Amino acid sequence: MIGRMKKWLGIEGVKLELLLPEEVEAASGILQGRVRLESMNPHEVATIRIVLIERYARGRNTERLIDEYELGRTELGQAFSILPGESRELPFTLPFAFIESNIDAFGKKNFLLKGLAKAAKAANQVSSDFRVEAEAQVKGVALNPFDKKTILIKH
């Protein structure tokens, strides 16, 4: 009974870990990494979904606004079994594209406006943080294993 409950909740089940570079060049438009899977019990992994998300914050104090944008998504769709004590690393390539803000578009018009756009971003406390999230769909488990890691994307 307790064993079935543990399996259903994913306890002692598949553990997922993202292995990513510390920083990525924005111009490349590609993030390459690996997903490590380990398990204490036999399980069947159906798919692994990997997403790159930008957390875009602007404004001050009570007027602070935060939006999240999905910049890229990939799915490792090959189903496989993972045995007890086994560790698997699966490589992935995640293509991504930035969503340009109004201030960035204004700054790209010419080199004089670039400095003005930079000052406007500083005055409005604009910041972007990036994270990668991965979730594995495991058959027979209610709570799927997942991991998320922050990453630096250089412009």
TrEMBL record:
Matching InterPro entries: Spore_0_M
Superkingdom of origin organism: Bacteria
Pfam families: Spo0M
Protein name (Swiss-Prot/TrEMBL): Uncharacterized protein
